[in-house]
Sequence to fold (429 residues):
Amino acid sequence: MKTVTVLGAGLAGCEASLQLANHGIKVELYEQKPKKFSPAHKNKNFCELVCSNTFKSTSLEFATGLLKAELQILDSPVLSCAYKCRVPAGDALAVDREKFAQLVTDMVKNHKNIKIIEQEVTKIPLDKPVIIATGPLTSDDLAKELQNLVGESFYFYDALAPIVYADSVDMSKTFVADRWSNSDGDHINCVLTKEEYLKFWQELVNAKRVQLKSFENEKVFEGCLPVEVMAKRGEDVLRFGPMKGVGFKLEGKNPYAVLQLRKENIEGNLYNMVGFQTNLTYPEQKRVFSLIPALKNVEFARYGAMHRNSYINAPKLLTNKFNLKTNPNIFFAGQISGVEGYLESIASGCLCAIYMIQYLNGSENILSSRTALGALGNYLVCASEINFQPMHITWGLLSPINAPKDKKKQMLAERALNEIKNIKEQLWM
Fold:
């Protein structure tokens, strides 16, 4: 049997390993945990979700819903674990992150075709098939090795949102509803009047932040801006962003501003502050966020924080099959390849497994941009090499279609799913 080395047991690494193993390929999976942890990781299990616990919408009205549907057709093992650990979150696929990590870990450890090596990798084997899926928090030694291999690497800062205890929220200052949904809803919405919002905003823009290391540039990814950075862009930026008070089916007028809390675990005792990723100091998070009336006496299970994310210049370095132009043995998957988000990391792991098998077999079947999977892969190789930025799946990445505006998303989804179904068997050959 052929053997592939996979570096990293995050979302992309586990998806690639399980897909390869399920298709008869032996896998040697290297993971530095539990012997060594990155600054953001705490759980000894694989597929630890650091920032949020949601894989976004499942509706085919959104590109994320289409990407999930395509992955389900391709029997994504990691996504199947997510559905088994689902917690209520409206149309979104949110999970109990502890149960999810445990379930994926058990699946990987119990697979007969996967051998797990618990050690940090500092040297990349260049003479055999390798998938590098070490994630946005690749260790310093391996990052240096990667810089030697690819010649360049970029860094940006990603931010975590706080998690609060549900029983410390003043429910009399909230209502339960999902934005833009006909269902009763799962989100707790913390209401602010104009006066309350302005006081909160003023304190937020003047609050103390954690100082970044002097030798690293503060380069924050636009799609994950800290809430205090958004606030400094204008008084109403938050009100038209994560704190918008519209989209709810309420009697009377909409609230001036709301903070949404999303269930973090199945028990419902933990809630994530949606869109409130932050780099404020811990005392300032307690002081400023407690100005939101419903959070006056809030207790934090986890404060927000920022950490370094690293990724390569994929358009310059990779072929359309996720492997290096200069060494086709070396593949990249996950956020280090330039995709952004949990779901997209799973997708790139799936694509890497498909293209690795094709590489080993000498076959050639590329998914087109008529599919969400193909469009995501196409972005990595066709984006500009100058100022390359990580990207999540959007409708705009898919090949256009001639259709009425109100039918376009439906027709894009139907076209994509039909193509995936028709080409599914050929992909693994």
Summary: The domain at 3-153+312-427 is CATH 3.50.50.60 (FAD/NAD(P)-binding domain).
